[in-house]
């Protein structure tokens, strides 16, 4: 290569190109005015230095008997290795996680016979993003919003009066008993003046 | 606790009626039932109204 005029340089990538995560080999060839050329290459390494994140949402945060909740896992980047084994559910279970890309879902079924106002779903750190050969793990475990649970049926009302098989000589009488405060009590019989008779337990 | 007045209709006279008690908690969960049977026979009331008096008395 002769000295003097600047050589023409042609590379395999142009100025302004966007490189993918990982290593890209860029090859450049310099050619002088005499037609002499030389070629060399270098590596461009793009690293993903941002940890992936996850947001967990539930479409029902007050679960009662017969309720289920749709749980949605939304990742900042497509996860690798995310499955049911990464998920811990308090007072409930989830079915098989399905989805693709950055969004996955499962159905939460609460455990029967539980009253607990503080529950959460936790996703551990045994998954990573897919942007580098090794992948970046999340910085820590991810918790869902709190959900309340009442899958414990109240006891049947305890009736102290009238007693079973009691004889009544008049059509007006008083029913006494024990109920759960705040519950709605119902007394039904087709011959009652108000059927069903309902009231809130105090 | 509860104490509630109930009234049986006339059709219940001289019958056994089953009262069914349930409760629904604030979360909407329904209890099992408590059934109480009562035997209703209205007592005859002595005397009566003016229209029932014996006019010869």
Poorly predicted runs of chain B? 46-57
- Assembly status: heterodimer
The count of DSSP E runs of length 2 or more, i.e. the number of strands of chain B, is: 3
Identify the CATH architecture of the largest domain in chain A: Sandwich
Describe this protein's structure.
With 202 residues, chain A is mainly β. Chain A has 3 domains: 8-46, no CATH class; 54-150, Immunoglobulin-like (Sandwich); 154-202, no CATH class. Helices cover 0% and strands 46% of the residues of chain A. In chain A, the strands form 7 sheets. In chain A, strands 4, 6, 9, 10 and 11 form a 5-stranded antiparallel sheet that branches. In chain A, strands 1-2-3 form a 3-stranded antiparallel sheet, with no helix packed on it. Chain A has a 3-stranded mixed sheet with strand order 5-16-12, with no helix packed on it. In chain A, β2 (22-31) and β3 (37-46) form a beta hairpin. Chain A is rod-shaped, with a radius of gyration of 34 Å. With 57 residues, chain B is an all-beta fold. Chain B has a domain at 14-41. Chain B is built from no helices and 3 strands. A two-stranded antiparallel sheet of chain B has the order 2-3. Classes of the chains: A mainly beta (202), B mainly beta (57). At the A-B interface, β18, β19 and β20 of A face β1, β2 and β3 of B.
Name some characteristics of this structure.
heterodimer; A: 202 residues; mainly beta; Immunoglobulin-like; 3 domains; five-stranded antiparallel beta sheet; three-stranded antiparallel beta sheet; 0% helix; 46% strand; rod-shaped; B: 57 residues; two-stranded antiparallel sheet; 3 strands; 40% strand; disordered C terminus
List the helices and strands and how they pair.
The complex is a heterodimer of chains A (202) and B (57).
Chain A: E1 8-11, E2 22-31, E3 37-46, E4 54-58, E5 62-64, E6 69-75, E7 79-80, E8 87-89, E9 92-94, E10 98-100, E11 103-110, E12 115-116, E13 121-123, E14 128-129, E15 142-143, E16 148-150, E17 158-161, E18 166-168, E19 172-178, E20 184-188, E21 197-200
Parallel strand pairs in A: 5-16
Antiparallel strand pairs in A: 1-2, 2-3, 4-6, 6-11, 7-14, 8-13, 9-11, 10-11, 12-16, 13-15, 17-19, 20-21
Chain B: E1 2-7, E2 15-24, E3 34-40
Antiparallel strand pairs in B: 2-3
